[in-house]
Every structure is written in C-alpha cells, then in structure tokens.
Amino acid sequence: MKYAIYVIGILILTLGISFTIQSNLGTSPFDALLVGLFKNVGLTVGSWEIILAFILIACNSALARQRPELLGLITACITGLGIDMWLFLLHNLVTPAIWYSKAVCFGIGLVVTGLGTATYLHTNFAPIPVDRLTLIIKELTKTSIFFSRTVIYLLFLLLAFLFKGPIGIGTLLTVCLGGFILHFFMPITRRILDNILIHANTSQNNPYEEHRN
Fold it and tell me: How far is residue 8's CA from residue 10's CA, in Å, rounded to a whole number?
C-alpha cells in the first residue's frame, strides 16, 4: 500500500505540474527551468527532470554529508515520465485562451501539485531530489518547509531566467504560495494516509479477521 500511495502521489504531482505548464501563466521556477531547457536545448521536459536529478542528488549528498540517495533517481524517472505523459494527454484537451481560464488552469495545477507532493513525501520513500533538498535545507536552517521551499524557488528562478523559461505571474504566485500550500497539505495527508496505512497493515496481519468481516 505504501508504494501504491507513493506512485499515486507522484502522478498527482505531475498532473499539477502539467496544468501549470498548460496555463501559459508561468510555472514554478524549477519547472520553468525544465521547459526553458526543453525549448532552447532539446530533449523533453521529463528528460531534463531526470538529468537535473543526477546533479541535485550529488548536491544533496554533499550538503547532508551522506551517501548519494540513488533511489531518488527512481522517483525522478517516474516523475519525468509522468510529466511527459500528462503533457501529451493534455496538449489538445487543456488549452486555455482567455485570462480567467488560464487562471483557473494554473490554480488547479498549483493546488494539485501541493497535494501530490505532500502525498508522496509522506511515504518517505525516494523523494524527488529537489524535495529532498527542501527537507535538507529545513533541517540545516532549523526553519519551516515554507522558508526552505521559498529559498529553493528563488535559486531556480534565476536559472530559469537565464535559460528563458516560462516566467510569469504564475511563477511569482508559485514562489509566494507554493511553500504555504505544501505546508498546508502535509498534516492533512499525514492524518489521512496514516489511517489508510494502519488499516492496511491491520488487514495484512489479521487476514482471517478480515475474511470473517
């Protein structure tokens, strides 16, 4: 069940990312960097997700003074494939043209991204390297997820600007609200998923009781 929640969380996350990209109002700084690399260098958005994961894993290892978390590559690969899959599916289905439809599309993407991130992080299995970096900075600075997420957003905002990624009002909203939304969903998903995992473990440990019920 834990791994099923992990995959579901990433699929929700990548759906949210794809909605923000399709909104054309700007994406998160990290995703803007991915799109900028895609447009100016080549490959797909998901491919750059995987490539940058290698770099971030090395950085995380140095900051945390631990061995590289190579399991993060699994998450990066699934995330990269998920982004490319959703972008392919939404390419002709979600094409907002009017400003308020773009705003709705972006808003959905921002909230769904926060929900997906909080869901898969709760499983504590192979976080996306950029999310692991968020947790590392949180621990090193003894601050909140909101603060550490905002610091990372500002760093990638600069890189996205250099690679001419889709920076817009949506990018600013992500920087200002992304950490807050993740912070909002973390306790909610923890409470719900803990109940699900406890129930699943109880059912596995008592198969005869489950059958009798």
Answer: 5
Check if the beta carbon of residue 31 is closer than 8 Å to that of residue 170: no
Q: Strand, coil or helix: what is 102?
A: helix
What are the helix and strand counts (H, E) for the chain? Answer: 9, 0
Residue with tokens 């003074």: 65
Residues 60 and 198: their CA atoms lie apart, in Å, by 31
Alpha-carbon torsion angle 11, 158, 58, 77, nearest 10: 20
Single-letter amino acid, residue 66: Q
**In this predicted model, what pLDDT tens digit does every residue of 127-146 receive, in sequence order?**
678 777 888 888 888 877 77
Are the C-beta atoms of residues 70 and 138 closer than 8 Å to each other? no
pLDDT digits (tens, 9 = 90+) for 187-199: 888 888 777 767 7
pTM across the whole model? 0.78
Burial of 213 (0-12, 13-18, 19+ CB in 10 A): exposed
